[in-house]
């Protein structure tokens, strides 16, 4: 838990005391978006994007935001959290459309772009002006866009801090801010974002601002905020995690030295059985890059996603995967947060995540939009304890993958070892990739 957590809400300027469990609309009366208080135009746009009726998080949080409450919402991935804050903010924006009305902070560039797209889709015909502020894009173009005071700004903290530090006029553009949203709040409240959040909060107005936090998992930081704001904010927490029901969860025990051999075998079996969309999660950028090179050498068409890739390449790779042009995405945990790719059939955890809740975010990429998903976790002899922690968190005992015959798997061993050597040679020639990684680690210290 960061020291920022309790002060975040002390600065938020909440104006209304909460009549917590007494919101006047009964659950049965919230079966349409109109019944939640949204105007005709927004309701029509919601239908256009394919939403038929509100989800649980939307039924509870939209009326609370419309009534002026701060909101802390925790609900599983794929439950419609973006619409739960975007729709009421767009409704309120129609009353007071001047200046930057909403700032939405999110941990990754891809998620920022996705949130901005959803704001645009929900606001069709409303003449909304939105702006995306993320790394990898022109600072000058972003500064010009911010100076024109768009209605909605979606940003990653690091890039927004750059603007705040070097341009006082941009800080002034946020003087009429009405709503601050922290999406994937559990990630933003970790120590890695603490310095950036402090600078941002110091430069935002507090008197008129409402603050909304949304997350898929409860963390000590979220719990601390709930304690601090018990009487001043509306809290919504999903009673269960139905996303688990839509995803078959399994593990495959593998010796650490031949993990890539088992991965190749599973990928070939899955593809031969008609699986068309697979995400492979790794713990490190180095593993992500090496697996991409190795599988390419072995004839599999993969794309990769990690934070050291330029933004245009990240966007292009994600686009190829979403369109089905590439069937396999190799990614670090930047792909585990909020990305809406409804066609993912299987998630493979090449590495067991150190933090159990990251497992929840990863497998949330599969089994979306009513589809049945599957998650397979490769577990080495050094990761058994991590698997047990995940089972404790989820309350589910993972079953072992059936049909994996060691003799069949190890037939590919020599080809894999050869591809590993070739892949490492290629990486050493990619502009000092390993040197860039070492420099990045030093800068983080």
From TrEMBL:
InterPro entries annotated for this entry? DEAD/DEAH_box_helicase_dom (IPR011545), DEAD_box_RNA_helicase (IPR050079), Helicase_ATP-bd (IPR014001), Helicase_C-like (IPR001650), P-loop_NTPase (IPR027417), RNA-helicase_DEAD-box_CS (IPR000629), RNA_helicase_DEAD_Q_motif (IPR014014)
Intervals of motif Q motif: 31-59
Pfam families tied to this protein = DEAD, Helicase_C
Gene Ontology molecular function terms on file: ATP binding; hydrolase activity; nucleic acid binding; RNA helicase activity
Q: Does the keyword Nucleotide-binding apply?
A: yes
Ranges annotated as spanning the membrane: none
* Domain named DEAD-box RNA helicase Q: residues: 31-59
Q: Name one GO cellular component term.
A: cytosol
Q: What keywords are assigned to this protein? A: ATP-binding, Helicase, Hydrolase, Nucleotide-binding
Q: Which residues form the Helicase ATP-binding domain?
A: 62-236
Q: Which residues form the Helicase C-terminal domain?
A: 262-410
State the name under which the record lists this protein.
Dead-box ATP-dependent RNA helicase
State the organism's lineage: Eukaryota, Viridiplantae, Chlorophyta, Mamiellophyceae, Mamiellales
What gene name is given for the protein in this entry? RH36
């Amino acid at each position: 838990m960061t020291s920022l957590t309790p002060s975040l809400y002390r600065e938020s300027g909440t104006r209304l005391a909460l009549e917590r469990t007494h919101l006047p609309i009964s659950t049965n009366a919230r079966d349409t978006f109109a019944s939640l208080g949204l105007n005709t135009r927004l309701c029509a746009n919601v239908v256009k994007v394919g939403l038929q009726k509100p989800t649980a998080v939307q039924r509870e949080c939209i009326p609370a935001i419309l009534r002026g409450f701060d909101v802390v919402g925790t609900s599983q991935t794929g439950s419609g959290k973006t619409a739960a804050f975007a729709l009421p903010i767009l409704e309120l924006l129609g009353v007071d459309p001047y200046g930057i009305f909403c700032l939405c902070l999110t941990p990754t560039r891809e998620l920022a772009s996705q949130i901005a797209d959803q704001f645009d889709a929900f606001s069709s015909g409303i003449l909304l002006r939105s702006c995306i502020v993320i790394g990898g894009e022109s600072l000058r173009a972003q500064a010009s866009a911010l100076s024109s005071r768009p209605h909605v700004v979606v940003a990653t903290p690091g890039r927004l801090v750059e603007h705040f530090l070097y341009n006082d006029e941009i800080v002034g553009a946020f003087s009429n801010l009405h709503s601050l949203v922290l999406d994937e709040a559990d990630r933003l409240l970790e120590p890695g974002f603490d310095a950036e959040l402090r600078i941002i909060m110091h430069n935002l107005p507090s008197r008129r601002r409402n603050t909304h936090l949304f997350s898929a998992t409860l963390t000590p930081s979220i719990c601390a905020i709930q304690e601090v704001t018990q009487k001043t904010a509306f809290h919504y927490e999903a009673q269960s995690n139905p996303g688990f029901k839509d995803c078959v969860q399994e593990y495959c025990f593998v010796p650490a030295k031949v993990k890539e051999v088992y991965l190749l075998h599973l990928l070939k079996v899955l593809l031969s059985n008609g699986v068309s969309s697979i995400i492979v999660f790794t713990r490190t950028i180095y593993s992500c890059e090496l697996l991409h090179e190795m599988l390419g050498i072995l004839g599999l068409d993969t794309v990769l996603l990690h934070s050291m890739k330029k933004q245009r390449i990240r966007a292009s790779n994600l686009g190829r995967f979403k369109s089905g042009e590439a069937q396999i995405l190799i990614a670090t945990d930047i792909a585990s947060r909020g990305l809406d790719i409804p066609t993912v059939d299987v998630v493979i955890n090449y590495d067991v995540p150190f933090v159990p809740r990251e497992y929840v975010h990863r497998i949330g990429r599969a089994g979306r939009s009513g589809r049945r998903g599957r998650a397979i976790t490769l577990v080495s002899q050094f990761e058994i304890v991590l698997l047990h922690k995940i089972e404790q968190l989820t309350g589910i005992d993972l079953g072992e993958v059936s049909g994996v015959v060691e003799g069949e798997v190890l037939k590919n061993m020599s080809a894999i070892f050869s591809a590993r050597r070739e892949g490492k040679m290629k990486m050493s020639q990619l502009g000092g990739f390993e040197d860039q990684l070492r420099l990045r680690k030093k800068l983080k210290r």
